[in-house]
Specification:
Aminopeptidase, single chain, Nitrilase/N-carbamoyl-D-aminoacid amidohydrolase, 519 residues, 2 domains, eight-stranded mixed beta sheet, alpha+beta, hydrolase activity
Length: 519
Amino acid sequence: METLDLKDFEWKTVIRRLTMDDFDALVEMQLRCFPDMKPWSREHIQSQIDTFPNGQICVEIDGKLAASASSLIVEYDPNMAWHNWSAISDNGFIRNHNPKGDTLYGIEIMVDPEFRGMRLSRRLYDARKELCRNLNLSRIIIGGRIPGYHLHSDEMSAREYIDKVIERALFDPVLTAQLSNGFALQGLIPNYLPADKASCGYATFLEWLNLDYRANAKRRYHHVVEPIRLAVVQYEMRAVKDFSEFATQCEFFIDVASDYKSDFVVFPELFTTQLLSCVPASRPGQAARQLAEFTPQYLDLFTEMAVKHNVNIIGGSQFVIEDETLYNISYLFRRDGTLGKQYKIHITPSERKWWGVSPGDKVEVFDTDCGKISILVCYDIEFPELVRIAAQKDAGIVFVPFNTDTRQGYLRIRHCALARCVENHVYVAVSGCTGNLPFVENSDLHYAQSAIFTPADAEFARDAIAAECNPNIETMIIHDVDVEQLRRHRESGNVQNWNDRRRDLYKVVYREDNMEREI
């Protein structure tokens, strides 16, 4: 099997400014989203882009326009006619945009029906919130449609419908998403857009407050680094009928992690061996190569899930054949649709004996939207030099998919991960399998207690354990970590292992890309 080109599996997902080149696609999308409403004219979009380019944003997936959002800045006035979309938006031309104002007003957001269910509205709302923080605006105000109301207008008032949506008794495709993204309902607006038949002309008046806002401050300022939310899966191995059943189980965890607005979700090493339960039994070496045949489906699945659920996924690890050689590879599936991979570098005796796995030869550090991270597969965390290399390359979080069959094997992972945190001032998240796979040789028993570990100092968790699962049950832990805290700890902690290395006595030298490097 030839080496798979990861670019063949990537989804190129980009959040960017809207341009006039997008006009035709934008109108086509608007007609699909709002078939009963008159679409934007070219003059509208040109005026919006010329007046406030930063406020006109879109999501592009594989070169296709998938979603968009438009906004302007106004000065907040409680007596302003917030109920009047035409007045507040200048009939969509936004020539009343006030760069010195304090409130971002959203005039439209839409997601192409082809791309719904992929949490693209969350990406747009997050982009608006970031714009609000960067410009030091006090709030975002939107007049939100309630397009599900026409289905219930004969049996309840608009106010009663909104109450049901807030109580989660009813689902509205717009209001439910807005409430989930932190907006608070401030009122009901009749005759907001009379042409909006789906909403019966009604809209909601919603507000999001910028807690970082500073009155009388300069427009741009440095705000506190946001925490990074990690979701760690402790996955139960069980027999499956086919790949689709495996995919359903994986998507459950990814969906939960996304609902908690996690930035990363990590799966265990070789949890894909579960797929060997749905193929004819064979000797371990042959079985490993059978498992590698699922790699294209695996890559397609997790790439789609990362984009759809707006979360970076460390996809455990999977057997891959490259130029007739078997590797154990952990893949990073970024939520922008791009991929990275880390070969397992140290191969255990049982992997060599039973499966014939070959080692990789490079420690990768990956750029993500949450900073630099590293992935080390199971046994690799037991070699301190590898985390030294990752830390030298500025990785703040090390993800460790592991797969152990006994408590002793797990404890080697656990104790070494804790040590790596102390030595290098990093967080380490370890994710393992539990449960049994009868008749799958060398992958029949599993023991795990997945966890997130921290350096051991006063500002971190008492036992240097930020969060951990109960052992040997299927579950997930979710916890926030602060990489800025790592930087401060490295510089001014009670002990500063990284700074206090005796490089006059010893050093780590490694070879990468045919060059010798020193830490």
